[in-house]
Amino acid sequence: MLDFWPHRFVRDLDALDAVLLTAKLTPCPHCRRTGMLIGHGLLWGYAERGCETVVRGRRLICSKRGRRTGCGRTFSVRLSNIIAGFTVRTNTLSRMLTAVTLGKSLRSFWQAERPLGLCLRSGYRLWRRLLCAQPLLRTALHSKAPAPPNDDSQPFAQLFAHLHSVLGTSDCVLGAFQHEFQRGLFG
To answer: Is residue 1 part of a domain?
Structure first.
């Protein structure tokens, strides 16, 4: 239902504040009424490293209080380096994808760079999620450009090359994917 909403993912906190400033001018993604959206608080979550809480996004509501005729439904706008439901950020997952593509084992990468409090099993679960999301990522990338020719037989190496050909040489290609396509990594 959020197909036409222009900002499901934004790059930084300034852009997140700009979403709030333009909310009144944007139609609700559910009922499509303009002028009913208001801020409904920040989305907070744990930082990837450490135990403090950080801003992960902003929540908006289509208000139906008073004389407003909104639908009363809420939706979220997230930072593009956030993976919904996970403390691990897209840059860690991008570095993991890079390391495995270059031949490093998943186990050695995760033991060296894992976020505090997460075990090796968490790294394998994230890798499995990325593996299952690979067809959706490839389909979205193919809508922009065909896959570049690649002699590598490893599927993630081909996906990595396709990500870089479409999104450029960003340090965090998975965050750039979420921002460019305005959709989450895992669905």
So the answer is: no
| Partners of residue 58 on adjacent β-strands | 42, 77
Question: Please, where are the H alpha helices in 33-119?
Answer: 90-101, 106-113
Q: How many domains does the chain have?
A: 2
Q: Are 6 and 25 in contact (CB under 8 A)?
A: no
Domain end (from 17, 44, 79) = 79
Taking the C-alpha atoms of residue 182 and residue 80, their distance in angstroms, rounded to an integer, is: 9
Residues 52-97 pLDDT 10s:
899 999 999 999 888 888 898 999 999 999 988 888 899 999 999 8
Report strand pairing: 9-10 vs 74-79.
parallel
The whole domain housing 44 covers 9-79
Tell me the C-alpha distance between 136 and 161, whole Å. 16
- Distance separating alpha carbons of residues 39 and 161, to the nearest angstrom: 39
Q: What is the pLDDT of residue 4?
A: 53
- Against a cut of 0.90, is the pTM above it? no
Contacts of 97 (CB under 8 A, 6+ apart): 130, 156, 159, 160, 173, 174
Chain position carrying tokens 């801003």? 55
